[in-house]
Structures are given as structure tokens and as C-alpha cells.
Amino acid sequence: MPSIDVHQHFWPEPFVALLRARDEPPQIDRLELVLREGRFPIDPKGNDLESRLALLDRDEIDVAVLSLQPTLGTGDLPVDERDALEQAWIDGTRELVAASGGRFRAFAPRGIVAGFAGVSVAASDLSDLDLISPLLDELQRSSAPLFVHPGAVRESSNAAGWWTAVVDYTA
After folding, report:
1. Looking at the chain, which runs of residues are DSSP E strands?
2. Is the pLDDT of residue 159 over 80?
3. Which of 46, 48, 73, 143 has the fewest other C-beta atoms within 10 Å?
4. pLDDT (tens digit per residue) in 71-81
5. Is the dihedral of CA 7, 34, 125, 87 positive or negative?
């Protein structure tokens, strides 16, 4: 029986280039990912195809399904910025999947995309079923899966500083 990991992330170079060009979150500053909630170190090898394939081999995983994590906060950006980042991720990921020899598949962010295994949305998107119902209907018609991922941390003026990162981050 094949071993499939349905929750991995990979940032293709076109996506990384756009994050590096940004001057506000989400962005990459040297070797740190900068989000609204803080700065986090990143390992450049984490987005290298050969290194990632070696990790799959080490962990005896046959196929990994990639998604663009909503925790980056791209969904909260102005539409043109969000769309540019998502399209760069889609284009780069499509190339990565093609070069992986069948080891990677991907969920598209927010909508069905030809050649992708399904769709990934933020958990908070499910709070408005009327808004997301057209996507759910389309997924049902195409028999494609919906992957629900934790969403971006949202600030709350009434909560302690740690509250949203712990309580709002669904797993």
C-alpha cells in the first residue's frame, strides 16, 4: 500500500521571489519569513526538490501532497497581491509536480485548477458556507477533495497576545 502524506508545503522559486520583493508581511527577509505575528527562520533547503525527495525517501513516503498554507495570510491581502502570489505558487508548483516523477501532487489554493489534486482552504472559510458553497458544489461534481488547513492568525483587541496563535490555530 502506498504511503501518502497529504500535508506538506513547498515554496517554488517564483513564489519566493515575490515574497522577497515585498516590504510588508507576508514577506521573506534574508533567511526569515515575516508574518503579522512575527519573524520565523526558514531553511532554504526546504524548498529544494532534490532535498525534499531525499526526505520522502528517508521517511518512506511515496507521495506528498503540497499546499500553499493559508497561515501566511495571503487571503487577507488586497485581491491583486493575493492573486499574484497564488498564481506564482500555482505556476511554480505545477512545474515542481511535473519534475517530481510522481512523488508530489498539490492542492490548489481556494479554487479548482486543472492538474491539481483538489483544493485547500483556510478553516475560517468554512464559517461562511453560503460564500464557499459554489466551491463545495464544484468539488462534489468533480469528485475532488477539499483540504481544510489552519488559517492566518487574526488579532483580537480583547484577547491576550498569545490567544490567537494557540486557540484560533486549528489542527
Report:
1. 4-8, 27-29, 32-35, 38-41, 63-66, 104-109, 118-122, 146-149
2. no
3. 143
4. 999 999 999 99
5. negative
164 phi and psi angles, rounded to 5 deg: -65, -35
Which of 169, 127, 129 lies closest to 149 in space, CA to CA? 169
Q: What is the pLDDT of residue 127?
A: 85
Task: Name the one residue in this structure whose C-alpha cell is 526538490.
Answer: 49
Going by their DSSP bridges, the two strands 104-109 and 4-8 should be labelled as unpaired
Q: How far apart are CA 103 and CA 64, in angstroms?
A: 6
CB atoms closer than 10 angstroms to residue 108: 23
Looking at the DSSP bridge assignments, the partners of residue 146 are: 119
